[in-house]
Amino acid sequence: MTEQQHEHVRVAVIGSGFGGLGAAVRLRREGITDFVVLERADSVGGTWRDNSYPGCACDVPSHLYSFSFAPNPDWPRTFSGQEHIRAYLEHVTDTFGLRPHVRLNHEVLMMRWDGDASRWEIETSQGSLTADVVVSATGPLSDPKTPDVPGLAGFPGKVFHSARWDHDYDLTGKRVAMIGTGASAIQIVPAIQPKVAGLTLFQRTPPWVMPRVDRRISGAERWLHRQLPFTGTARRGLLWGIRELQVQAFTKRPGELGLVERLAKANMNKAVKDPELRAKLTPSYRIGCKRILLSSTYYPALAQPNVDVVASGLTEVRGSTLVAADGTETEADVIIFGTGFHVTDMPIAERVVGADGITLAEAWKDGMESLRGATAAGFPNWMTIIGPNTGLGNSSMILMIESQLNYMADYMRQLDVLGEGSVLSARPSAVHAWNRRVQERMKRTVWNTGGCTSWYLDASGRNTTIWPGTTTEFRSATRSVDLAEYEVTRAARHRPLAPVGAAAPAGEADGGAKDTEAVA
């Protein structure tokens, strides 16, 4: 395909969740309007569009789980439900004029770096385009993970993942098997328990669950936040500060989490009187090793007579009979997988081909690695939002996203200063140095020492998802781009023409032009 046959943009943003929409807003604020947001679905919203299961809500307070540049004084509850967060993202899209940039139903099939032209060739389900810069904001919670259970294909009933909820299927009176005990499952179980005939929870590892102190935000509070915006800012600041103070216990002194464990056990003991069930639900690892879950209805639901907890994972399906690892057999009409997502093996990585002709997945075969959670060696003019080691165990990911948007903004400024056709590619030495520091800090954290196996760890047991520090530290580390950490080149097509009669640049006297020119 020739250059004239397809569209070219300055920036292509992949995904329209918090990361993608935030990137779009920041680009416009930087004066960059030549960009598109490529979204594979038919609406914006990311994980808050996809996860519409009963009871879906956020476990971070509403006023902290929103952009600082787009405060919402009208959050209806202290912990917002999925429908309110999705509506907020639609509101952000409209308020900041993003609709003209968003391309819905444009799934990215492949992205390839063209070294000759110094741009990305992007193939989508609706055609092709090219871009100088790619900002990948697909997010780690976008592609559901369903285990390969022997016999599952022969199950005669209904099967779906929590992130692909079938709203046309009525669970009333059905025998339901819930697979998994993560953040989705503890919301689904109490939401569906009253209507189903029977609910069997297959639990490989019990989670630590703290009470969810949720309440309606009064009309007076909302009026105050509308009339005096600084009160909403102060509320957000207080929520942020409390969580910053908690970080030390997770990252440096996990032993201090013992008190939190006692509070979590009290939460369970209050609702669960059966000692046998209590034993099944009591974790054997340090709290915080897996994400601490919030619910005041999960344990009461498990104590109901139509609920059974199988303290073992699902290993086989024989017709309508589900067999657990401990041999327990259960009859079911419906199987719901709450088994998480492809986090350390994101499918988008298979669709990104870098300067060396290898995919990002191949480059990350020994574990995800990036510079400051944003850029990867061998992938020029490419950035990711919510990249490796940017996740949090106790606070709002929006804080991390906004820090990465700062980095993205300075990245674009540096390219502008360097001139048209300039390319930034993270130096392998800088990427490795950054990750060595991160992994060294990770050794002391509860996520590595707490005695659990979590989705934070990759196949080799390395924690490539969590940030081992405060959000303040991360914001400082991503405030600006250090050009010493990058190889800076310029495309040959953008070199100034030599004066007539001037000697040809070295290496071009024989007519063989080089692709790029190092400028730093």
Task: Give an overview in words.
The protein has 520 residues and is α/β, with parallel strands linked by helices. The chain is 28% helix and 18% strand. It is built from 14 helices and 21 strands.
The biggest sheet, with number of strands, parallel, antiparallel or mixed sense and barrel status, is: 8 strands, mixed
How would you state the average pLDDT, rounded? 92
Count of β-strands: 21
Shape: globular
β content, as a range?
A: 15-25%
Helix content: 25-40%
Gap between N and C termini = 32 Å
Uncertain residue ranges: 494-520
Brief description of this entry?
The chain has 520 residues and is an alpha/beta fold.
Question: What are the salient characteristics of this protein?
Answer:
alpha/beta, eight-stranded mixed β-sheet, 520 residues, disordered C terminus
Topology, element by element:
Blueprint lengths: L6 E8 L3 H12 L5 E4 L8 H4 L31 H14 L6 E2 L4 E7 L4 E6 L2 E10 L21 E4 L13 E5 L5 H8 L5 E5 L6 E2 L8 H9 L1 H23 L6 H14 L3 H7 L11 E2 L3 H5 L4 E4 L3 E5 L2 E4 L4 E3 L2 E4 L14 E2 L6 H4 L18 E3 L12 H22 L3 E5 L1 H15 L3 H4 L21 H7 L8 E6 L24 E3 L2
